[in-house]
Amino acid sequence: MKGMRWLVQGLSTVVLLVVAVWAVSRLWPQNRAQREAVALLEQAAPQPGSNAFARLWLLGYDGIADDRLDALLSEDVALHRQALAALPADAYPGVPAFESVAARRYEPVAGMENFCSWREPGCLRKVRLDETRVAAALEGQQALLQRIARLAQDGHYRNPFAPDVAMLMPPFQLLTRALPAHALAHVQGRSAEALQGLCTDTLTARLLMSHSDSLVAAMIGAAMVEGNAALLGDVLAELPRQYPLPDVCHRAFVPAMASELAICQPMRGEFALSSAAIGHFSSWPQGLLLDREKTRGRIARQMAWPCGKDALAALADDRPVRAPAVSTSRWQLECAANPVGCILSAIAGPAYADYPLRLQDAGAHLRLVAALLWLREQPGDGPLETLLARLPAGLADGPRKIRVSEDGRSLQLDRYGLKQGAVLSVPLPEGLARP
Known about the structure:
The protein is mainly alpha-helical and 435 residues long. The protein contains 17 helices and five strands. The termini are far apart.
């Protein structure tokens, strides 16, 4: 019996110690760095122009007048909020299979084979090899293509739907259908139309990349920039050096400022989504193992660094933007009452490491095309290297120098993200390329 009493007392002591450590951990306040990171990610930054979201959200429906877009979106936002409010507190993964009210009132755009991709080169060659089939496929897409072109009139992208684990997104994949349409226009001899379309879509891509509250939208914008820049280079390579460019091309390919290549604003949107996801696990009994505010603080430390001075300085110098080291150790007092939150925050950090580099590469692609446009306007046929040595400020700056490829047929820049060690490239038109 005496031994049993010692065992009970020992177990009681351990339990009391665990409870005490848990209580101290739960009452321990967020540190200053976490509070500042949360405040930074909760700031509302002003954005230029009108919001492109309604136009994108309803992109897949034919026959909607421009003055009906906002009203339809408002109906969808209200219905989505009602659906969220009706869910149990611990529901996961949020509102399932939400469909716009437009689906019951308008015709969806016709399906179409995917002929070209932003990330795959050779769109012009593919369209030329299959011109008849591409032309037939695009016949039913003209209204969609006109809606895509109008996106460049807007200035930013902000998702008005309430943050949800199953966050609603527009049908971004429809934007890729404009790429074979521009290639086909050139193949059929409508090169001015092709250039106009490619440069207009590049403005839309820059809107998504630089003025978006969504990491997904920003990455799509970056891919769209590169896809349109690559096809524009291929088209220009087949045109005389003196072929006139639409004015929109000079606006679309102005080199990007450091602030345009930062993922600060998209990370704010990502943080809002993370906060919504954490809310699904912070009720009883999960709440014993997850502290919502402390988890948000730890995750904010992993997400807020793109908004800092060091990241902007690296972007301004075109140095690779790298996340600073932040401790993710779970052997800290704050993790005793928040083990699940500490595990989630440790996972979150590495997931974002490559995204800033993708935006930097898209910015570099803009600079590469801007250099090509500048070279086309230079008089004479002197050595290309001599012309490159005279590139104006903004085109020649930074550690990534624009150079001529070994065969003398293209301009190149090193790539930072995705395929590290690979190069960004645009072909040179006749008169600039080496024979």
